[in-house]
Protein: NADPH oxidase 2
Organism: Horornis vulcanius
Amino acid sequence: TWKWVVGPMFLYLCERLVRFWRSQQKVVITKVVIHPFKTIELQMMKKGFKMEVGQYIFVKCPAVSKLEWHPFTLTSAPEEDYFSIHVRIVGDWTEGLFNACGCDKQEFQEAWKLPKVAVDGPFGTASEDVFSYETVMLVGAGIGVTPFASVLKSVWYKYCHDATNLKLKKIYFYWLCRDTHAFEWFADLLQSLEAQMQERNNADFLSYNIYLTGWDETQATHFVLHHEEEKDVITGLKQKTLYGRPNWENEFKTIAGKHPGSRIGVFLCGPEGLADTLNKQSISNSEADPRGVHFIFNKENF
């Protein structure tokens, strides 16, 4: 038995030593941005840090807890000179981080007063393969939208730098959210991308659909009254917010009809139930003919 135990234990100890060494490297918080509904953005820098789109890191803040590590998806793009995470204040640890960063105070916080943090990572995810396809479907549920912030930023940087060498030609983006609280910070990014795409006369590059799934009768009535306005009353985007859940069978058939003979990447960050639905649709809408349309499903569950 000991022969079978020693090998895995040795590998585990090596992994712990590497993680401890990486956690001791200096990390500097360069900026803290407070978004609505108690969501904060931490922009950080670390020597030698290299990332790809959609990856995640583990973060420890000794001022809050000397032992706790928490995973956060990176919301910055590899092309930016910093890396960032968005933290929703929903528990004791996040509340402690919120207070440690001085976000509970009205006055301006000096950079040297910001808490020390340790970062381990980045670690890879399925989202890294998004640039391997000409057409992709990105599906985020609630806070599962965070890896796609990194993807959309990086796509835009690559598109501006050298659009001719960018293999990715079309993005279908879906965001499913129960309430409007999570819309705020991500809607700002979509508004920026929407405006810049229109300036370059390529508004069709990104098609997005935002679904508010936890709606009630009052919200629905408000939605109907303002549906004819130029911009959506919730997100401020030209694309109107939709109520309810998407009809995935219709969505897949529509996209398959627009891109015959293509390999279409389907990327999800969301719950297991939604993953099962999208996986079944990817299989049923893929053709047996190798020259036909094929949906390739990739997922991250939380």
Summary: The longest helix spans residues 2-23.
